[in-house]
Amino acid sequence: MREDDGRIRVAVLFGGRSGEHEVSCQSAAGIVTHLDRTRYAVQPVRITADGQWAAGPQDLPAGGYDAGELARLTPPRGGAPWDSLLDTLPDLGGADLVLPALHGPDGEDGTVQGLLQLLRVPYVGNGVLSSAAGMDKEMTKRLLASAGLPVADGVVLRGDRADLTAAERARLGLPVFVKPARAGSSLGVTRVERWADLPAALAVARVFDDKVLVEEAVAGREVDVAVLEHPDGAVQAGPPLEIRVRGGQPFFDYDAKYQDGATRFEVPARLPEGVDERLRELALRVFETLDCTGLLRIDFFLRGGTEPVVNEVNTFPGFTATSQYPRIWAATGMLYGELLDVLIATALARSQARSVADAVSTLGWSLGALADAQASPAPSRR
């Protein structure tokens, strides 16, 4: 419900039970800090690491917030998680829009998106199907490969399967990357240089997911492309950003992403002629193939420095002021707050269009039912 002064009520949902809880809290702190209070009344809503839901003040004053301050503003009451969710539903349902700054399972995977759709509350970002498909690396690869998009070769290990066949080893070669199929921020990812180390890498990955992907190592540069949908439905790919890991990590792992100050991002990336355009074209095709809405970050490898290979996608990427997605748009002149404005306006425009479509569909059904009733013979009386 809009405030009396016309501002849009935005509930910023963050935290969650995934291994990316802290990253989500940092994203939310950036978002809450940069939302324009002349346009929005902002309410933080936190999901604690053990699943408690807690709503903060409905009109948080403007200012700089960090993750710790947001946690203090959203103290859980205790009790069963479902009780706290029931207590929080009026805050979510009463918002004009929810901005789910959630990363990983039970947040970025379609679960929360389904809840918000049931509440008929507009929300920023991807829907249930796109979120679920984007969270599952196996499903992402299958969908993209079926559309003719380049992906790395890999083998999926389910249940207690703990090894590859001789043919699979020969096909993938060494090194390989072992990844949980449904996790983000490089949690549980191991680079394996010797087949003897595969069981240990699988054990690390299965801490996060019982479905594991063993993937060929693509030698080449690592480049991200951000895609943004505008309120008029136009979809735009931003300039490629190259990741340069300099802190001694063997790849862009969790430490390199969030703890190593030596990691560098170069945007726009200095790429060979034609590669920039090719990456943007592929990014838009990935967005379309996964039926995305709002935003998406696509992580590519450049095999041999020139041939793009889709590594993975992020349906709600990291959103601190220094994260790759806001960095990419900042390089175009779109500041963090303006980016949030576009995402919110797009979500509201989509919701309005959906409401009109639902109304037309309901009207059509009602008129059809009325016509059928008028055409039916009157019941006989005895």
Protein described:
The protein has 382 residues and is an alpha+beta fold. The protein folds into three domains: 116 residues, Rossmann fold (3-Layer(aba) Sandwich), CATH 3.40.50.20; 154 residues, D-amino Acid Aminotransferase, Chain A, domain 1, CATH 3.30.470.20; 65 residues, 2-Layer Sandwich (Dna Ligase, domain 1), CATH 3.30.1490. It has twelve helices and 14 strands. Strands 9, 10, 11, 12, 13 and 14 form a six-stranded antiparallel β-sheet that branches. A hairpin with a 5-residue loop joins strand 9 and strand 10. Helix 1 packs across helix 2. The protein is globular and about 65 Å long. The termini are far apart. 44% of the residues are buried. The mean pLDDT is 92. One of its GO terms (molecular function) is ligase activity. It is an enzyme of class 6 (ligase). Pfam families: Dala_Dala_lig_C, Dala_Dala_lig_N. This is D-alanine--D-alanine ligase. Its cofactor is Mn(2+); Mg(2+).
What's this, in brief?
Cell wall formation. With 382 residues, the chain is α+β, with helices and mostly antiparallel strands.
